[in-house]
Every structure is written in structure tokens, then in C-alpha cells.
Amino acid sequence: MGLSLTACLPQDYAEGVFVGRAQGSDGPHVIVLRDGRITDITGLASTVSGAVARRVFSGGDDLGPIEGGLPHDWALLSPIDLQCVKACGVTFAVSAIERVIEERARGDASAAVAIRQGLEETVGAGIRAVVPGSEEAMALKAALIEQGMWSQYLEVAIGPDAEVFSKSPVLSTVGHGALIGVRSDSSWNNPEPEVVLVCDAAGEVVGATLGNDVNLRDFEGRSALLLSKAKDNTASCAIGPFIRLFDDRFGIDDVRGAEVELVVEGTDNFRMEGTNRMTEISRDPLELVRQTMSEHSYPDGFVLFCGTLFAPVQDRDEPGSGFTHKVGDVVTIRSERLGALTNTVTTSRDAPKWTVGIAEFMRNLAARGLVEKA
Fold this sequence. Notes:
Blueprint: E1 18-24, E2 27-34, E3 37-40, H1 48-54, E4 61-65, E5 75-77, E6 84-89, H2 93-105, H3 112-129, H4 135-146, H5 152-158, E7 163-168, E8 179-182, E9 189-190, E10 193-199, E11 205-213, E12 215-216, H6 217-222, H7 227-231, E13 237-245, H8 252-256, E14 259-265, E15 271-277, H9 285-293, E16 302-305, E17 330-335, E18 339-347, H10 358-367
Parallel strand pairs: 6-16, 8-18
Antiparallel strand pairs: 1-2, 1-5, 1-13, 2-3, 3-4, 6-7, 9-12, 10-11, 10-16, 11-13, 14-15, 14-17, 17-18
Protein name: Fumarylacetoacetate (FAA) hydrolase family protein
Keywords: Hydrolase, Metal-binding
GO molecular function: hydrolase activity; metal ion binding
């Protein structure tokens, strides 16, 4: 038996169609799971981006039953390749409050407790009750400005414009089972369990998967201008295990109602659990896609992290110190219809270096006679 897949797939995997990537001895392969079988469609579509663009999700070489796993010398990769990796932040009221806390604490975790209590009492109920960009939201903004409570994070939480940023370069994401990196000089950070939408060049959502948008609370808390430095580091973006394609059994309404569970298990016997409920998102997922596409084109498609309401406040060490990662933490992000994404924490400094960029990827496809199928 090869590399097991059933442990990371949802229980109803036999009813869905899943697209992913796996590393073989000759390079990456595009694989499809459907009707209980694994097929290698690389000879038909040598990139996931191309498979999505041309809707090539059938045919290819049969690799056997899903229960038999992948060939023994193959390794699962992130299920995307040439797509741009975009993300939306502060899309939940709870996370908005936590971003304001980071800002006011200047990245100091020990100062967060008192600030959190005051903000929740004065801001929490208001931002949960309004629709972003509405007249009521603008009235709340005016009131908060008058009280000296306004923040750039509240602007993207309840204002007309969502926060949309580039999370990770093309081909730099890691997949299920890989090490995930946190900057070695960060002392306050956390995982971010999210649903990730997979879109074609026209902005049509064709499926969804799971992602971990690692967050450095100390860096971003010191200055929002450090967002890119906080978000984009070696191995800091995990996606997987597979893209579940939309069909008559799974669609955007399942995304809207998804619950994304998180478990962190440390080598120090620490355990933390949390849940990201998509029903509590402030902006509809399709509105996030629309804003991402409004003034930008993505010829190879894009994936979009939808944000999370999960912001851990559980103390790990001293009281009031909050949560931060330690090397060796095992992070599992799971959702009933999408499966499970598991990664082990290391530092971005010590994570395997990212070496296969676009040029190397194209050279590999060319050597295998697959460029025209991209």
C-alpha cells in the first residue's frame, strides 16, 4: 500500500470529486479522486491551473482505488500550482477586535488582556450587528471616531472595502503533512484555520479547500505596514489536502455553512482547540471574490483565503501571556466536507527551502514533454 489518503479525506469522499498534486520521481503530477479511484491526469492537464481552466477532471491513467493510496514513492503536495494566492483579513467581528488589540498592544501579548476586555465592552456588540458598508456601519464608524475608538482594522471590518492581500508567491505553498514555518524572530503568533476558495480566471468559484494563513501577531501589531513581512515567509502558507470541486452535492452554500475545526498539540503536552464558523463571516464569500477581481486580472486563476474568526487567547505558559506557537506543534485543520490539513510547526529559517519556482517547474514540464498541456 502506498501513501494513505483516507485519513485526510472527508468521510463522504466517495461522493465527491477531488483534485490535487503529488510529487513523483519525475516531478509533480495532477491527480483526481472520483468514483472511488485515483487517476493521474498529468498527460491531459499538467497543471491544476490548466485543469481548472479547461475543466479537465476525468480520463488519464488509473492509479487504483483511493483506499490503496498513492504510489509508495509519491508525496502529497499543495493542490495548487500557478494560481495566485490571495487572502482576505478581518472578515469576522471577533478577529477584528483581536487585530485592534494587537495594534493597541503594539505587538505585546502581555498587554492584551486588559485591552481586550475594554474593547469587547465598547465595540464588540456594535460590529457584530452591522453589515459592512451599510448606513448603520457608517454611523457606528462616526460614533467610534468621536469616542477615539477608531482603527484601520475596524475600517476593513465594517467599511465598504474588504482587506485583500497577496499571501504567498506562486508555487510556494506547502501541502498536507509538510512542515509549516513561523518566523524565528516572532514571539506572538498563531495558526489561522480558513476555507480557501479556488477560482478560475473569470472569477468563477470551482471548488474549495482548507488553508492555514499563519499569523504573526507581534509583527502586524507593531505596524500594519509589516503585514507582508508577517504573512509571506518560507513555508508560512499551507493549503490542502485536496480541492473539492463544486457539483450537485457540494457547493457555495456548503462553504457558507462550513465549520472549520482546529487542534494544536504541542510536544509540551499543550492542547488547544477552536472552531471557525463560516456562518459568522461579515461579508459573503462571493463578495470577497468580487472585490478581489474588481480591479485585477488573474490569467492562471487564483485561490482566496476567506479569513477566520479564530484568534486564540488561551494562555500557554504564564497567565496573561496568551498563545504562541512552539517548534514541534502539530496543527490539524479539519472540516466535515473538505477533510483534514495537518502540518508540523518549524521556523521559516529552518523549514526546507523553496527551490521549485516557475522557471524550474516549466523546465521540468518541458523535459517531460508536458508544457503544451499546462
